[in-house]
């Protein structure tokens, strides 16, 4: 950092999606504000590059507070409404990134390259005059008079306002290693204890169905049982892997399993392989199958409902001879198959942890932030945006939308600080 950069009006710590958005929007809204964007890694935006299978699922056609877990939904709603999806699409179009829609409303760049999304953001940051300083980790942020002193390995930076955009702890090799949580805590914020989110689940080696099914996927409805009662139900594609289960529905379920464990609750997961069907419906279906096709084997009949390899694995686990004709299936075995189809236990023993997690659940408590400005309620002049807050979205572009929206809300307040007092 040169001596000319030793003070600025706005210092943004962390050049991921949320930090880049905050810095760009602040300068767009008020080119007179000096903005320095500090990034600890040598190259900014590493997580954008790996996102969406290196294609970057930028947002979703419909984003509401119901797509998120964590802090209060009214706060999430207010932030999303202030910078909705239409504004995100328009912004990316302006910076040269046209988006197209794919399954489940996911929006990707037309070029299908995350690199193009990051390059466009970096180009725009440079165009509007953001001073980006990479390889410059913030070691501490302290109050200094009316403003702040940001200590970095390359010198101190004085700033009137500081934005913490340091992300969570997922994929720590990208630079988001949770250090920002310590900065926030030192400045007086409560932390909701973090856990990984959107992470594959490990199943018990001996009792899990996954061994031999690696690579097979199917649509399921998962139920997460907490203390014996239904906690959460999620529908989507499940991917069997050598270690357990992955795919959108398992990843979405992971935060619920981990949060329940964190709270010391008893937690179990079952899969309905006939999304939504009840035991009674499945039992009736098997009864009529036996009448319609008495000579068919149990395994071939089951393979009309689930993938053939899953049918075989289920029957092995249930110790039912799959070659038996349907006409000779006992009532007890028929009912065990029907029950297995609607509530197959997934013996979850853990997750793959932060190194494989797409987000962090938990983080800085939303109640300590003013949702109209993203300014801290406990440390005026400090702003918090993005994944470091206690908000985590499901798979589908929702986490990036949170980054863009929270960044824009903060930028609006930072661009014209005198106006933000009115909203406080
Ligand atoms: C594999 C993977 C795929 C994903 N795919 C998608 C997807 O397709 N769509 C979607 O919506 N979401 C996706 N996500 C989630 C999404 O990437 C994150 O929610 C989002 O990047 C969070 O943005 P952020 O700016 O808050 O934090 P980050 O992107 O984590 O950025 C924080 C930045 O702060 C820097 N930093 C940290 N501490 C310091 C410090 N002390 N000083 C200076 N700099 C610091 C870090 O180096 C980092 O660059 C994916 C995540 C992963 C891991």
Structure report:
The protein is α+β, with helices and mostly antiparallel strands. The protein is built from 13 helices and 23 strands. The strands form 6 sheets. Strands 1, 2, 7, 8, 9, 10 and 22 form a 7-stranded mixed beta sheet that branches. Helix 1 runs parallel beside helix 12, helix 2 runs antiparallel to helix 5 and helix 3 crosses helix 12. The N terminus and C terminus are likely disordered. The structure holds flavin-adenine dinucleotide. The site of flavin-adenine dinucleotide has 39 residues, from helix 1, helix 2, helix 6 and helix 12.
Briefly characterize the structure.
This protein is an alpha+beta fold and 424 residues long. The chain folds into 2 domains: 259 residues, FAD/NAD(P)-binding domain (3-Layer(bba) Sandwich); 153 residues, no CATH class.
Topology:
Elements: E1 7-13, H1 17-29, E2 35-38, H2 46-54, E3 59-60, E4 68-70, H3 73-82, H4 85-94, E5 99-101, E6 106-109, H5 114-128, E7 131-133, E8 138-144, E9 147-152, E10 155-164, H6 179-186, E11 191-197, E12 201-203, E13 217-226, E14 229-240, E15 244-246, H7 247-262, E16 267-272, H8 279-292, H9 298-302, H10 308-318, H11 331-342, E17 344-346, E18 348-351, E19 359-364, E20 369-370, E21 375-376, E22 382-384, E23 391-393, H12 398-415, H13 417-423
Helix pairs in contact: 1-5, 1-12, 2-5, 3-12, 8-11, 12-13
The chain binds flavin-adenine dinucleotide.
